[in-house]
Each structure stands twice: as structure tokens, then as C-alpha cells.
Amino acid sequence: MLGDSFAYAKDAIVGKWMQWLLLLIATILLGIPLLGYSLKVLRGEKPAPEVTGWGTLIIDGIKYLIVSLIWAIPCLIIFFFGLGSLAAAIISASNPIVAANNPGAILAFAGGAMVFFVLFVIVAIITGLLATIGIVRFARTRSMGEAFNFGEILGTIGKIGWISYIIALIIIGIIIGIIEFILMAIPYIGMILLFLLVPLLVLWHSRYICLVYDSAGAA
Fold it and tell me: Which residues lie closer than 8 Å to 59 by C-beta, 6 or more apart?
């Protein structure tokens, strides 16, 4: 799947410089048209579709963003509660009266912040696993409601195999993470190179997820 998806992304832009330029423009526009384009890839279109129909790309990109934000709500709630606990701990520690007379309050706030952090990581992993399949379902059915069809999402992951699915996501995450880290470590031109490679990385990731989804034999 790694080889297939990389070849798919490479064939879509290498030598097709106008397509690459259009995808870079889509990236500059807050990435919204690029999200819309990635939905085409997630639908299984092969070879990679042309960058056309900007109105549709923008609308689909906004829908993609809304779906992603809804999936992120549990993490955002936990994050802000944790941030509040951490802020309370810092404020209490900076107050000499509270620090001297009620050190337990500081420990309680700090402990609460740590609990929220651990909970945030757990919830982020779970929602990330579910949201990935949910977004593909949204792409395939064009229904935002299907992005939250938990029964179908869990059924699809079950067909893929939970272990296989998790390993597949870890592999692509590590590979793309390493590429981004190396590029950002290059002085001066690293960020420019990363920007230029955004279309390739997005297409590679989207096609890879598409193949993972299709390995379940799902429609």
C-alpha cells in the first residue's frame, strides 16, 4: 500500500507542473480546496483527478473541515479543562499566601491538569481512529452524517482488523513525520521545501488511507 500510494501521488504531480502549481494554490487558500481535492482521492478515483471545479473543491473542503472539527470536540473540551487546571495551579503557585497556607490546592490543580492530559491523549487516539474511517465514509457517500455512523465505522475497522488498522496508521504517520522533521531541520530552505511537497504528502496519505479502507472490502 505504501508503494502503490506513493506511485499514485508521484504520477499525479511529477511532470505535471501545472497540476502541482494548482495544488500549491489550493494549499495557500487555507488548504480548504486541497481538503476538497483529497476527498476525490479518498473516493478511489484513479488515476488522480484533475484539479478542476474550484467551487466544489471549496465547498467539499469546508464540509471536510466541519466534520473534522466535530470529531475534535471531545478533545477540545478536555484540552480547555486541562488548560484551566494548569492555569489555576500556576496562579496558585505564584500567590505566596496560597502557596504557604494551602500547598495541597496547588498539587490538586497540577494533578488535575495531568489527568486531563492523559485523558486527552487517550481520547485523541480513539477519535483519530474512528474519524479517519468516518471521513472516508463521508467522501464515499457524500453524506456528512455518515462520517458519524459509528456502527458502520466500527464494522469497517473490524473487517480491516484493529491491529492491522492501527499498525497501518502508525506506519504512514511515522514515515510522513520523519520526512517533515528532516525538512524542517534544514536551515532557511526547509520550510519552503516542505511547502512544495505538501501536495505530494497529502495525495500520498489520502491514497494510502483509501487503500486501507478498501482492504475491508467496504463500499
Answer: 36
At 5-33, the pLDDT tens digits run 999 999 999 889 999 999 999 999 989 99
- Whether residue 47 has a cis bond before it, omega within 30° of 0: yes
Higher pLDDT, residue 214 or 92: 214
Distance of CA 204 to the CA centre of its chain: 13
Query: Minimal CA–CA distance to 124: which of 79, 62, 176, 187?
Result: 79
Q: How many CB atoms lie within 10 A of CB 71?
A: 18
> HEC string of 92-156?
HHHCHHHHHHCHHHHHHHHHHHHHHHHHHHHHHHHHHHHHHHHHHHHHHHCCHHHHHCHHHHHHH
Residue with cell 482521492: 41
